[in-house]
Amino acid sequence: MNSRYMNLHMKTILYLLFLVPSFLYAQSVAVKGTVVHSRLEEPLSGVSVSVKGTAIMTITNLDGIFSLPRVPANATLIFSFVGMETQEVPLNGRTSLNIALAESASSLDEIVVIGYGTQEKRDVTGAITSVSADDMETNPGATINSALQGRIPGMQIVTTSGEPGSGSDIKIRGASSINGGSEPLYIIDGVPIEASNIASIDGDATFSPIASLNPNDIESIEVLKDAASGAIYGSRAANGVVIITTKGGNKFQSMRPRITYDHTSSLVSISRKLDVMNGDQFRTAYAEARANNGQDATQLWVTNPHHPYYNRTTDWQDVIFRTAYQSRNDLSLRGSSETFSYGVSLGYRDLEPVITSTGYKQLNMRGNFSYKLSKKISAGTNVSYTNVDYNRILSSSSNNYSALRAAVFTNPVFSPYDPLSGELVDWLGQRETRNPLAMAQKIPIGFKRNMITLNQFVSAELVKGLILKTSLYTSYETIKQSSFQPKTFDSATPRRDFGKFSQSGTNKLMNENTLTYDKKIGKHRIGAVVGQSIERDFAEGIRLDGENYIDSKVTPIQTAARFTSISQTESERIMLSFFGRANYNYASRYLASFTLRADGSSRFGSDKRFGYFPSASVGWRFSDEQFMNFSKNVLTDGKMRASVGITGNQSISNYAWQGAFSASSSRYDGNVIINHNSLMNTNLGWETTTQYNVGIDLTLYKGRINITADAYHKSSKDLLFNFPINYYTGFGSVATNFGSIENRGLEFLVETVNINKKVRWETGFNISFNRNKITELPEGDDILINGYSLGRIGEPIGIFFAHKALGVYDRDESNVYLAPDGTEGQYRKGAATGEAFKGGDMIWADLDNNGVIDDADRMIIGNPNPKFIAGFTNKLSYGGFSLNTIFYWSQGNMVMNEFRRRRNQMLVTGNLGQDALRRWRQQGDITDFPMVRYGDAMENFRPSSFNLENGSFIRLKEATLSYRVPANYLKGLFIHSASAYISGTNLLTWGKYSGYDPEVNSSTNPFVQGVDNGAFPKSRSYNLGLRIQF
To answer: What is the CATH number assigned to the segment(s) 2-101?
Structure first.
């Protein structure tokens, strides 16, 4: 009986077990639907759609459509996407859903790129600021550095020239070096690039390899500012690190390519002209200048109304500058599957500069490919090609053949054309000065750059959470430059043609191997990375200078009759590195990170070849503590950070420590002359910077307000320095480590989402304060560069050191000097027996009260470092319309207007500015502008406070109005999305500076800042663009 009962019981159980799946299947439903952007009403691809409490998940396709074949009828679906608010939607038996996701105000779930890895933004313990691809798109004509200006607290970017492709002076948290430069280290798709500016063949300009990157290829940019973030890059991170990630295949898309085409057309012009005299004003000033110099002032063109020059006015700036047309075209194809993703782009830029007879063309190609070879092995290839072809002119005001200088300095009564034949002339007047237009058209300068890069990598998951990655990178870059000056411009007798040619090639080879581990155990999370890399850079170049060409119309360098200089160079650098990082966090509440890198470089002496760079950082998410529960309605997230670390700088020449030799192109008794160029210093080592940082990150009202604040202290020591030595040794200096610099500062960043409905309004404001000073110099001596940029212990870097102007003597008898013994005399120039100053001459401060105005009377007159820099961004969106603006503000920096000073010296038959209309003309005149005279014999226009100007300014850097066409308008056209925009750059500048632009710097040397030598002026552009995705 019991046996029969047991058999019946088991049959019943088995029947029920078989019945359950059928019952569950009967309760499951197939669900499909569409996910769109709530404001734009456009499909969202790549949205994660998961069933709550299960592992069931899918993603939306290119059209925002998803499908789940078997879902419990009473399930809840979760829709999540980066940058959007997550939604949980109960099915309640429904099988079709239309979901609209709203933009999120919070950015805590964002992933940021750090050294050799990624990390959730909420868990970052260093000082890192990110810029996304969306931020880059608001300024379609920007270079990478220009797009960062005003967005990154603590990052000062000074665009040194308006030339296409020109370099920038970049400082992250102040200058940390004297001779080592201030340029940050760039990491492009994991590859470190020391982006030193490329000098032009005539030394009048620099070009940045970073400027030729295509902004449309950029996915994200992270700026690492503190030592804890940058120390894993060791000896090259003292100036900060900029990590650039380029776009690959779009995630979660099908293999069907997403094709995107961008076009921008621009009209470009200089933002302002300098106010110079017209013909009538200059004729009067010219006669005065000659008379004040004791010269005849009765030339016919000054006194004879019938002379062709008498009633003529030529605006040379109008002759040289033009409204230029520029175009940018970009085409990309991107797609992906579970095993393969690809991103291919092609960009072409035809950027006509604002100076006549110049042209800039740039071609960019890039391909990023990744492959999943198996469940645990993946690989990838990144390849790029860049070509730059630039026909330019000399732009430095210090060069006599600069058309830009001549456009401001040239006498306005001259004409570029012969009054009788109408032909363009090379010289003006009686061979008094060269024709600016002729120089622009007849003195060609060529700049050609080609670069190809290839990066291949393979990664394998050895065990769960442990990944081995190896990569091999190689690049080759060639640069060709040439210039030619026809003999018709030569002022010597006999006249000669001059030509220059240079060609260089640089090859980089790098192998890197990393082992990464990530493990989560309950609330504990452990991460680590260890790695090794080896790099080799090899460069070679040749330069030829020639003269007396066989035919001025045939200008290749080999047609020169004689070579005045021949030089050939080869250079190699090898670096071996080992590095590691360990991360720990508990429940994302208590965070810690430790890094160590060891670098060995051939650039340094055998006694100090290796440098070691450690760092440590901690973080505390105090908002997760129970005692903070009272603030949950306001404080969404709060984190405090602290870090300390050491980074280095190795920006010196490859053989600075060695006793180098070179072969001269000259001969002695028919033999080659060997020159001993430098002394050996086997003790030459790294610059090191120790930095302390404390910071706080606050997220309020569920991300509507985000605040970041940091305070830092940087101390740089063992600065790379060319120490002067006695000339009897046969050398002027020796490379050594000596000196130290200190920077300390505060940074604030506030980002708000003011409205987040149909209208979305976002604002951002950042402000940075940095104070630096020199704390040690060799033997405590001052360093004076270019006559007025000073380095002195206890003072900021590069302060201006020159004479102080107190006004102008109104008459001769006003020059009265009262000696300490009570005797009366006159102030004199240069020596006690020098010439006495007269009415119309400048009054100078006599610091030593000896009646003589000389070098001993120079003093600190100004500081080129700003008191603060700030940026303000604003984004207003409604439907498909969006308005973006960004302002940049620099306050408290002084500028030495060297361009104005040289013009006022009237060293040639040159024009004067409108400010000279208030000049002293006769006894009794009261003014601050001295008399004009040719040659400036009394040095009234020496470097002084008279030429020092307030360089503070606020600039509307860019404004963009865009419109995105509604998706339903594009149905049936095979167009996924389309948008159009109008924008402007450098639209308005508020400031008191009288030059072309207050944002100036004629040198990347940290000791020479805020000097205006009349660089290529920056442009204002008006842009019209179109973007279509298929």
So the answer is: 2.60.40.1120
In DSSP notation, 402-414 reads -HHHHHHHB-TT-
Contact 258, 62 (CB under 8 A): yes
Could you identify the residue written with the tokens 């080609």? 450
Tokens of 625: 């503590």
Distance CA 886, CA 149 (A): 9
pLDDT per residue as tens digits for the range 128-180: 999 887 777 766 666 788 888 999 999 999 887 888 888 788 899 998 887 76
- The most distant pair of C-alpha atoms in the chain lies apart, rounded to whole Å, by 143
CA distance 82 to 86: 9
Omega within 30 of 0 (cis) for the link into 21: no
Distance CA 872, CA 882 (A): 17
Per-residue pLDDT at 354: 92
Say if strands 894-897 and 1011-1012 run parallel, antiparallel, or are unpaired: parallel
Question: Could you give the percent of the chain with pLDDT greater than 90?
Answer: 55
pLDDT of residue 18: 44
460/477 Cα distance (integer angstroms): 32
Q: What is the mean pLDDT of residues 919-948?
A: 94
Alpha-helical regions (H) of 65-183: 133-137, 144-148
SS3 category, 230: helix
Rounded to 5 degrees, φ, ψ at 11 are -65, -40
CA dist 75 and 95 (Å) reads: 11
pLDDT confidence of residue 159: 83
In angstroms, the CA 560 to CA 987 distance is 47
The arithmetic mean of pLDDT across residues 349-360, rounded, is 91
User: pTM of the entire structure?
Assistant: 0.88
Contact 864, 962 (CB under 8 A): no
Superfamily of domain 111-246: TonB-dependent receptor, plug domain (2.170.130.10)
Looking at the chain, the domain(s) classified CATH 2.60.40.1120 span 2-101
Helices (H), 856-990: 898-905
Q: Say how far apart CA 400 and CA 173 lie, in whole Å.
A: 37
In the 8-state DSSP scheme, what is residue 587? T
Q: Where in the chain is the domain with CATH 2.170.130.10?
A: 111-246
